[in-house]
Design brief:
nine-stranded mixed sheet, two-stranded antiparallel ribbon, 11 strands, 21% helix, binds NADP nicotinamide-adenine-dinucleotide phosphate, DHFR-like_dom_sf
Length: 184
């Protein structure tokens, strides 16, 4: 089982992640943290894969699509065509994604796999045997949301990662902290 799924998410105190197909907040440095973690690789000629549900893909402004310097994997049960986008592939199940990572097409191309949302994709990935780590930003405020992060499994322990700052962050009067969890 060589595939490892890393989840990355920012969650409000009331476990919210989204509202009206968008983020409930604008936290520029939090977004930069997301971009840095999901983009950086140790192997220069490899990219990371970002796995997302179709609504998360739709929530990305057109000018930022596909997420640059990453291989974009979109989960959808529809026959929508994404072939106009560079480095972008669609899949109809997480299982199909896991199998494709072992194929010649991808296995020597990527370094890490990041699951970037939304709710149902996080839920499926968290309970998958391939789940590795959860990179969680706790936004210390309640927000009106219509998309929520699933309940955290009990079998998680917090770990430290030198890539993730430990001090409290603050932007626009909103405090937040970065956390990393791994399956026990
Ligand atoms: N705070 C954060 O860190 C964060 C991160 C990501 C997203 N968000 C927010 O979350 C919201 C979007 O998330 P969401 O939960 O509403 O939707 P989502 O998970 O992004 O997308 C749901 C869609 O993904 C497809 N899908 C999901 N699981 C699938 C599977 N196993 N197999 C095949 N297709 C699958 C289906 O697409 P089809 O309908 O096309 O079949 C489904 O309708 C937005 O508000 C966004 O801004 C927040």
């Amino acid at each position: 089982m060589s595939v490892k799924l890393n989840l990355i998410v920012a969650v409000s105190e009331n476990m919210g992640i989204g509202k009206n197909g968008d983020l409930p907040w604008r936290l520029r440095k939090e977004m930069a943290h997301f971009t840095r973690l999901t983009t950086s690789t140790k192997t220069p000629n490899r990219k990371n894969i970002v796995v997302m549900g179709r609504l998360t893909w739709d929530s990305i402004p057109e000018k930022f699509k596909p997420l640059p310097n990453r291989i974009n994997f979109i989960l959808t049960r529809s026959d929508r065509d994404f072939s106009q986008y560079k480095d972008t592939y669609k899949f109809s199940s997480l299982k199909e994604i896991i199998s494709s990572l072992e194929t010649e097409k991808f296995k020597n191309e990527f370094e890490s796999v990041w699951v970037i949302g939304g709710a149902s994709v996080y839920k499926e990935a968290l309970s998958s045997p391939y789940f590795h780590r959860l990179y969680l930003t706790k936004v210390q405020k309640n927000f009106d949301c219509d998309a929520f992060f699933p309940q955290l499994p009990e079998s998680l322990k917090e770990i430290s990662d030198t890539e993730v700052p430990v001090d409290v962050q603050e932007e626009r009067g909103i405090k937040y902290t970065f956390h990393v969890y791994q399956r026990v």
